[in-house]
Amino acid sequence: MKVYVCASKHYSSDKSINAYAKKLGEILGKNPNITYVQNGTTTGLCGLILSEYLKYSKDVQFYIADAYELSSIKDMLSEENFHCEVYKSEAERLNQIASCDMVLVLPGELDTLLEFLYCNVTKSSREHNPKIGFININGFFDGFLQQISTIEKLIKSPDKVPYHVFDKSEFAKLISEENITKNKPNI
User: Fold this and answer.
1) Number of H helices and number of E strands within the chain?
2) Does residue 138 come out as left (phi exceeding 0), alpha (psi in the -120 to 50 range) or beta?
3) Does residue 44 come out as left (phi exceeding 0), alpha (psi in the -120 to 50 range) or beta?
4) Structure confidence by residue, pLDDT tens digits, 41-79
5) Is 100 helix (H, G, I), strand (E, B) or coil?
6) In the chain, what are the domains?
7) What angle (nearest 5°) sits at the alpha carbon of residue 112, between those of residues 43 and 21?
8) pLDDT (0 to 100) of residue 10
9) Strands (E), the chain
10) Rounded to an integer, what distance in angstroms lies between the CA atom of residue 7 and that of residue 117?
11) C-alpha distances in angstroms, 17 versus 60, 107, 138, 178?
């Protein structure tokens, strides 16, 4: 199962969000059925997830746009046998993200939300649609999710992408040892 996490290349000023990112890397790394798809960023929340994931698994694929700086992972790629695909355009990279089995969205800046929105917008043109889950830490996504709900009530569209919102208790369930040892994450 390929899992992509929309996450920031910056750390959060809310330390609990940084802690959740680190724990998510552990959860994904301990599940033997997960391939973590990453954008090549080794800083911020992306870096926390990646470094924690690599403690438990080396099954990582990097989807990187050609315009991105590869120096941050160049040493890592030469040391390990990671799969890395470099795409000529951001659209090609985003199409690969949208082809993952699951996309999780952590609190972050606009780029983080744009990756989620791209998965949603391109849904109608694809046979495969990823499961999408928001990890709603400290109510970060409440306003955004309310806006989505308002749009869905006003605009009737058959192309909606279903998503799930993890609150603190559901995230705790997701990270439980029992769930980590199951074949697939519960979403």
Assistant:
1) 8, 7
2) left
3) left
4) 888 999 999 999 989 988 887 777 665 555 556 555 555
5) coil
6) 2-178 (3.40.50.450)
7) 50
8) 92
9) 2-6, 35-38, 60-65, 83-87, 102-105, 131-135, 163-166
10) 13
11) 22, 7, 8, 23
